[in-house]
Amino acid sequence: METPQLPSPLQGREFAAVVIGASAGGVNALLEILPALPKAYPYPIVTVLHVMKGRQNQLAEVFQQRLAMRVLEAADKDELRPGTLYFAPAGYHLSVEDGGVLSLSQEEPVHFARPAIDITMASAADVYGPSLVGILLTGANQDGAAGLAAIGAAGGLTVVQDPVEAQVAVMPNEAIRLRQPDLVLNLQEIRSLLLKLEKKQ
């Protein structure tokens, strides 16, 4: 089977990091797209999931059993490294600072969420600009829409899960309403996109 041509938003661009946000239905969505990635994936992937406090360690463990990539719960002052999937810990906002260093805080929730997708995406956009890929998946509130818009405003590549396919369409629909993303894709297409990004290295 021939590999499809790269979508035009990827052509002539270089990337350095991926940030993914999801809420309701997000675990299943991530398990559809991430296990296909190789151990030596060339970018760090920072993921923010809305989950109950105390479940984050279980998530990292569950995903490590299914992924070739290294999976970690993000810790304060961690440096982002290629081939590693970082989960924002429950109860903490996760920011990306200059040099790709992670920072945790316990400021007020955003859209009733801590960690908030908006905070992680907006801070990563400030650091990586056009070399950042932002992906927003299924979810039941508005968190992530403004963050993805910030990635787009900084020149990064923005991807939203097709609301028709999403387990809960509120989050994808809000992102599309706020700022038209570069790509609206189903989970299979998002998985293919992440693999195509690897070939750009």
UniProtKB/TrEMBL annotation:
All residue ranges annotated as the CheB-type methylesterase domain in the record? 9-201
Q: What class of enzyme is it?
A: hydrolase
| Gene3D superfamilies linked | Methylesterase CheB, C-terminal domain
- Active site, per annotation: S23, H50, D143
Reaction catalysed by this chain?
[protein]-L-glutamate 5-O-methyl ester + H2O = L-glutamyl-[protein] + methanol + H(+)
The EC number(s) given in the record are 3.1.1.61
What is a single cellular component term in the Gene Ontology annotation? cytoplasm
Q: What are its GO biological-process terms? A: chemotaxis
Q: Which UniProt keywords apply?
A: Chemotaxis, Hydrolase
Instruction: Look up keyword Cytoplasm and say if it applies.
Output: no
Spell out the PANTHER family in the cross-references: PROTEIN-GLUTAMATE METHYLESTERASE/PROTEIN-GLUTAMINE GLUTAMINASE (PTHR42872), PROTEIN-GLUTAMATE METHYLESTERASE_PROTEIN-GLUTAMINE GLUTAMINASE (PTHR42872:SF6)
- Name of this protein: protein-glutamate methylesterase
Its lineage opens with: Bacteria, Pseudomonadati, Pseudomonadota, Betaproteobacteria, Burkholderiales
